[in-house]
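Ticket #4471: structure export looks truncated?
Reporter: QA, pipeline team
Priority: medium

Steps to reproduce: submit the single chain below to the structure queue and open the exported record.
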Amino acid sequence: MVRFRRRRPQMMTPPERATLIVNRAARGVARRFDGDRCLRYLRKRGLDVQLEYPASAREATAAAATAAGRGDDLVFVAGGDGSVRDVATALAGTATALAALPMGTVNVWARETGIPRGLRAAIDTHLAGQRVRADLGCAGAHRFLLMAGIGWDALIARSVRPRFKQSFGDLAYVLQAAQMLPCLRPVRTRWRADGSEREDQLAQMVLSNTRLYGGMVHLAPEASAGDGLLDGLALTPHTVIDFTRLAARLALGRLTGDRCAERFRVRAVEVLTPGLPVQLDGDYTGETPMRFSVQQQALLVSIPAGPLPAILRGAHRDGAAIPT
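Actual output as written to the record:
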């Protein structure tokens, strides 16, 4: 009988250098986050840390790029999923790990990877955790960590006012959607998925790198940020009855099998029809035509120690080669 040895847990090298990037515009940060106190705590834990307060997404990306160029082990991000995406853009292909501190509106990435909401608990989790390589989505020249939306949700995201989002959090998107719903119409759309082209009345397309959509619905229950693929969902209602049925099934999480809900798993998607709005990780980004793909295992992320979460199935442990 062949006996298999149990693989010993991999020991992580404790982080020594880090940068803390704080988005003061993120929901709850200005009121609840004390950057200097956090800095003192990190230094007490033995880290050489720099604190950055970028005034824009571009400055956040630049600060993360500087940290990676300096050879930091971790970049802590105090903000929401948009802030996490801005930093991830700069860290792709580097040996510096993204360490999310959930402080924003929905914090889907932190929830999917098991990072606790409490600030000190989140920091301690990263310091005692593990680092793995995850996929990063590409949308034209932009990057996304969670998912890309083309169509109605991007139109809604574009319409949500920042102050409204600050006040109501993820509920702001629900309220905005309810207000806009009577005016939304599917658009005749042409797209190509891994070389196969089709055209249909499209209300919404979601291309997922992770599973939890908007912090509420598992739109892509089998998605993984470690498999090099995007899990796609195209909603193509043709009648009011189609739309009503899709809405009910979406709320119940039972879209599988509906003739107007097409699921697919691909390496790349091109939406060829111009003028459709696009959102990345909840933020409006631009319009189609646009190509969506994956940078496989491109991003080093810090997550809790122990078994990998479901969304990182297939991810590589720290030390794996970065794909070219």
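Status: closed, not a bug. The export was complete when the record was re-opened. Leaving a note from the reviewer for reference: The CA atoms of residues 191 and 197 lie 6 Å apart.
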